[in-house]
Specification:
Distance between the termini of chain A: 72 Å
Oligomer: homodimer
Number of helices of chain A: 17
Strand content of chain A: 15-25%
Largest interface: A-B, 78 and 78 residues
Radius of gyration of chain A: 29 Å
Helix content of chain A: 25-40%
Shape of chain A: globular
Strand order of the largest sheet of chain A: 9-8-7-4-3-1-23-24
C-alpha cells in the first residue's frame, strides 16, 4: 500500500482555531512524498491564555523534519493570519515562497526585519501563471477579500485538482479589483475538482456578506452628522475600505490624515505595487492643525482595542497629534474579533468619557465582512462541483457546521480534518477521503525574542503566578542543615496583610518555615531537597489558611560548608 | 449653603462599568446627612485584568465612613450584580437590608455562608408596602426582568420622588408574574417624579427586547429537530426561562433533569418562596440513565463558558452523569456577556469535536434580553415624566448615550454621573442637577479569603509576572559583602534555554550576577540594598539581551555576621 502515489493533506494550524493558517499537501508514496505548504500565519497572544506572548504560531516540526522534500510555500494573501509567521518559521523550512506582487511586498519587509534576504526567498508570480513544483502545478486564482490581491490556490496533481480557497467572498463591487470571475471558476469545475479546501469563517451566517461598495452611504451619513472631527478605524490592510473612507471624507469636505505606521505602510505598499493606484490625496498631520475640526477625517489604527495603537492613545488623550472632544466622532468601520470585546469596549468607554461619540457596525451600516456568507460559499460549491469538501480556516465548530452543510451544497464527501489529522484525498482503495494518521501539532509562542513551546510549561507557570502570586525565599543552612540566618521571604502578588491575620504574610511564612525546619529530622536536614520541600509545604499551609491561595513558591536553599566560611 | 436640606446621589459602583451596582442617596444638610443604599452587587475577575480574583466589588469607604448615618440598604432583585457583594460588604455597613421574599431567600444563604445571622439583617417587605427610613420613604414597585420578583425602588423624600428602576423590561408575557402595571407607573408620574435613575444596559438597541413567552416556538423547534438528547443552558436565576424550557421539553416528550447546584438551588428557592409555584415535574439523574437520549432534556449551568460548570464538564466528557455525543444538541438559551466570548467558544469547539450540535441565540430565536430596549425605556420616560434623567447601570458609553437620548424622551435634565460623581438632585439654588464633588471610588477584590484593593499593587504585580515571568535569587554574603556561596537562581515562567544562547538562562544570570557583585565598590558592598540593586540590574540586562523580556526579580540578600557562623 505504501508504494502507490497518494495525495494527502494535513493542517498544522488554522483548522480548529482562528488564525495561524498552515496547510500541507503531500504527494507520492508514503516513503517518498513531496510537500507543498499553503500559508504561514500567526495569531496573537492574549492575557487569558498566553500572557506576554507576542505571536502564536503553529508547531511545524512535522513538516520541518521533511523539509528536504518541501518544494515550496504558497501564500494566498497578505493578512497576518496567512503570512505573519513566514519570516519567523522560514529558517526551519528554507523553501521558495510563491506569492503575488502586493503580498510579496508585505512579506519582503518581514523578511528584512528578521535579517533574511528576501530576494533569495520570494518568487513573485502573476495570477493564473502556472508553476510546476514536482508533482504539483500551482497557480493563483484572484478572489475578492478585504486585502489587495487576495488569491485562491489551484493545485493540480496527477491524482486530481485541489482548489484551496484562501479567504474569499463574492463581492460584486470590490472596488480595488474586478468581481470574481465566476465563469473561470465554472471552467475549473468543468475540468474536475477533486477537493475544495474552503474558508469556513462565516459558515454560520445566512445570506451574503454585502459588497465593499455598500458601506459608502452609511459612512457618508455618519460623517455628515458629526459636527466636529471624525476619526475612522479599520484594519490597515483593508485598503479598499481606507480608500472608500478617504473618498467619502473628501466628498464631505474633510481633509484626510493617515495616522499610525501600519496604515501608512499599507497604503504606500498598495500604491507602490500598483494594487491600488488611485488613492485620494492625503494631507500631512502638521497641516491638520490649521484646519477646523469639521473639515478633518483621521484614518487611524486600533480597531481591536490595542492600547498602543492610535485609537487607544486618542482615548487616553495621549496621541502625538490627535485630540478628540465633545462633538467629534470615532467610527469603527470594522468588526471586533471575538475575545477582544473587553479591550474594545474599554476604549469606547474612555472615548465616551471624553464626550466623543462612538459609532460602530452595530449602530450603522459601515462595515461588511471580508469572508463570504452561506450563499457565497454555496455558489462556490455550485461552480466548482468538488468531490470532497475540506473545511479549513475556522474553529472546530465552524469546520463541523461546514462539513454538515457541504453535502447540501453538492459535495459527495465532507472531511472533518482539524489540525493534525492527515487525510488521504486520493490514491486509496476507495474514493472517499480517509484519515490516515494523526500528526503531532501544537503552538509555538514568540515570547520576547525567543520561541517557546506552548507545552513547555513556561506559560503555564506564568498563568499560575498570575492567579496565585509568588513567594521566594532564601534559606541559608550549615552542613548539618541548621538555619544560620533568618529565612528571607519575599511575597509578590500577595496581600501584605489581611483582615484578622495575626501578623503580615511574610512574617507568618517566616515563622512557619522556621518551625518546619526545626522539626526536620537530622537525616532530612542533610538533603537540600527535603529542606526545600518542608519550607514549601509550610509556606503553602500558611498561605492557604490565611490568604486562601496556593502561590508558586521558590525555596532556594544555600548550604554553606564550614570550609567555605 | 450647607445648612439647607439637599437630596444627593452618588454611585460607588455600577455607573461606568457592568456589574457591582452600588448606589447611594443622601438627604439633609451636608453636615447631617442620612443615607440610603440601593443594591450591592459584584462582578467577576478575569484573567486579563484581575487574574485569580474571585469577586470584584465596589470600594465603599465613602459610605462605610458614614455608616452611623446609614438608614438602610434596599436590594432590587436577586441577580449577583445587585446582591452578590452584600454578605461580603455588610460587616462594613451593618444597616438593615430591605427586599422582597425571593430576594431575601437568596440573600439569606449568602449571609449564612459568611457566618452572619440573616434574621438580624434582613427585613422582608411586600411590593408597594411603604417603609419610612428617616427622610426616605421607600417602597418596591414590581417590574419585569429575567429573575423572579424584580423590583424598582420608589424613594419619596421631602424634596421629591426618585424612581430607581433596578433592571427592567416591559414584558407583555413575563410568564412568572403579571406584566408591568403601566397605569400605576403613570400614577407615580402624576404624583411627580423628580428623578428617574434608569437602567442603561440596552440603550443602544432599537425597538423592544421581546417577551419571555416569545422564545417558546424557537426552543420547541430546536428540540424537535434534535435526534438525540438535548441539554439546555441559561442563567440559573432565569427561572421563567427554566420553566419554559422544562414545559417545552415535556411537550416534546422529553423528561427534564436539573444539573448543577446553582440551578437546583434557584428552582427550589423559587418554588419554596412561592415566586414560581408551578414548576413542571423533574426526574432524577439516576432515572435518566434508563431513558433513551431522545427522551431527555438536561437543564445545565455554564452558559458563560465557565470550565467547571456543567456545560464545561460535558464538553470535556467529565461531567458526573451527562455524556453527549453525535446527534445530541446543546442549546444556549442565553447571551454571552462581552468578554466571555473566548471561553464560550472554547466550549463550543469542544462540543463540536464531540459531534454535538450547538445552537445559540444567533442561530435561532431562543433568547430574549432581560433589559428593555429603547422603546421600552422611552415608554418608562413617557409614563414617569421625570425632571431629571439619571442614567445608571452601564459602562460610560451606555451612560453617555442614555443621557443623550433622555432629552428626546422628555426629561428636562440628564445627569451624566459615573461612579464617584456626587450629584445634587434637589435643594440647590437652581432646579438642574449639579455635580457637587468627586468621591473616591474604586474596586476591591476578593482574592482567596482576603479583600485586596485594586490599587494595592497586588494584582499589578501578578499581571507583570504573567507577562514577563519571575526570577528569584538567593545571594549569601559575608560582613564585607563578598559572596560566600554561588548565587542560587530560579527562573519561573521563562524559557530554560533559547536558540543561539551560549548557556541556559539561569547560568547566564548567575554569571552576570557574580560579575556584577565582583565589580561593586567596597562601600557599596556594605549595603544590602546596593547588592540587591546590582544583582537585579545584571539579571534584567541578561534577560533583555537574550530573552527579550524584563522579568519580575526578587534578589534576596542574606548577610552572615562572623559571630553567627
Amino acid at each position: 500500500m505504501s508504494g502507490a502515489d497518494e495525495l494527502v493533506y494535513v493542517a498544522l494550524g488554522g483548522a480548529g482555531e482562528i488564525g495561524m493558517n498552515f496547510y500541507c499537501y503531500g504527494f507520492g508514496p508514503e516513503r517518498d512524498r513531496k510537500w507543498l505548504i499553503v500559508d504561514c500565519g500567526v495569531t496573537f497572544g492574549d492575557m487569558a491564555s498566553s500572557p506576554g506572548v507576542d505571536l502564536v504560531m503553529a508547531d511545524i516540526d512535522f513538516i520541518a523534519e521533511r523539509r528536504d522534500s518541501l518544494l515550496g510555500i504558497a501564500i494566498t494573501h497578505a493578512h497576518e493570519d496567512h503570512v505573519g509567521a513566514l519570516s519567523h518559521l522560514w529558517p526551519q523550512l528554507k523553501a521558495p515562497v510563491f506569492c503575488t506582487k502586493f503580498t510579496a511586498a508585505v512579506a519582503k519587509r518581514k523578511f528584512e526585519d528578521q535579517g533574511i534576504a528576501p530576494a533569495e526567498v520570494l518568487r513573485v508570480v502573476a495570477p493564473h501563471d502556472r508553476t510546476q513544483l514536482g508533482p504539483f502545478e500551482i497557480s493563483f486564482f484572484p478572489v475578492t477579500h478585504s486585502v489587495p490581491e487576495a488569491m485562491a490556490l489551484v493545485i493540480r496533481t496527477p491524482l486530481g485538482l485541489v482548489f484551496h480557497s484562501g479567504d474569499f467572498k463574492l463581492d460584486e463591487a470590490p472596488l480595488i479589483a474586478p468581481p470574481t470571475d465566476e465563469a473561470a471558476l465554472g471552467a475549473i469545475g468543468d475540468e474536475g475538482v477533486l477537493c475544495f479546501a474552503c474558508d469556513s469563517t462565516n459558515v454560520f451566517e445566512e445570506g451574503r456578506a454585502g459588497s465593499e461598495e455598500s458601506v459608502r452611504p452609511g459612512l457618508a451619513k455618519v460623517m455628515r452628522e458629526s459636527p466636529g472631527a471624525v476619526a475612522c478605524t479599520t484594519f490597515a490592510s483593508n485598503v479598499a475600505r481606507l480608500r472608500t473612507i478617504a473618498e467619502v471624507a473628501r466628498e464631505n469636505e474633510r481633509s484626510v490624515v493617515l495616522a499610525g505606521r501600519a496604515m501608512k505602510r499599507m497604503v504606500e505598499t498598495a500604491i507602490a505595487t500598483g494594487a491600488v493606484p488611485d488613492f485620494p490625496d492625503l494631507i500631512d498631520e502638521d497641516r491638520a492643525e490649521d484646519l477646523p475640526a469639521r473639515h478633518l477625517c483621521y484614518l487611524v489604527t486600533g480597531s481591536q482595542g490595542e492600547p498602543r495603537a492610535a485609537v487607544g492613545r486618542i482615548s487616553t488623550n495621549s496621541h502625538p497629534f490627535i485630540r478628540l472632544k465633545e462633538g467629534d466622532t470615532l467610527i469603527y468601520s470594522s468588526r471586533t474579533i471575538p475575545g477582544n470585546e473587553r479591550e474594545v469596549y474599554r476604549v469606547y468607554n474612555r472615548l465616551a468619557a471624553l464626550g466623543v461619540r462612538v459609532v460602530d457596525a452595530d449602530m450603522a451600516d459601515i462595515h461588511v465582512s471580508g469572508h463570504g456568507y452561506r450563499d457565497e460559499i454555496a455558489q462556490y460549491y455550485k461552480l466548482l462541483r468538488p468531490a470532497i469538501a475540506l473545511p479549513i480556516h475556522g474553529e472546530h465548530r465552524h469546520l463541523a457546521e461546514h462539513a454538515r452543510m457541504a453535502k447540501a451544497w453538492g459535495a459527495e464527501y465532507a472531511a472533518f480534518a482539524p489540525n493534525g489529522r492527515m487525510m488521504r484525498l486520493a490514491g486509496g482503495a476507495r474514493p472517499e477521503p480517509e484519515a490516515v494518521r494523526e500528526v503531532e501539532t501544537g503552538r509555538v509562542y514568540l515570547d520576547g525574542k525567543t520561541l517557546v513551546g506552548a507545552l513547555d510549561g513556561v506559560i503555564r507557570a506564568r498563568l499560575k503566578m498570575a492567579r496565585q502570586g509568588k513567594v521566594s525565599m532564601a534559606l541559608v543552612v550549615d552542613e548539618e542543615g541548621e538555619l544560620i540566618a533568618d529565612p528571607q521571604i519575599r511575597a509578590v502578588g500577595a496581600p501584605v496583610d489581611g483582615e484578622g491575620w495575626p501578623r503580615p504574610l511574610e512574617e507568618l511564612i517566616e515563622e512557619a518555615v522556621d518551625d518546619a525546619l526545626e522539626n526536620l529530622s537530622k537525616k532530612d536536614r542533610r538533603s537540600d531537597k527535603r529542606i526545600e520541600d518542608a519550607a514549601v509545604a509550610a509556606c503553602r499551609r500558611i498561605c492557604e489558611r490565611h490568604w486562601g491561595k496556593k502561590p508558586e513558591i521558590a525555596a532556594l536553599v544555600v548550604r554553606l560548608d564550614e570550609e567555605e566560611d
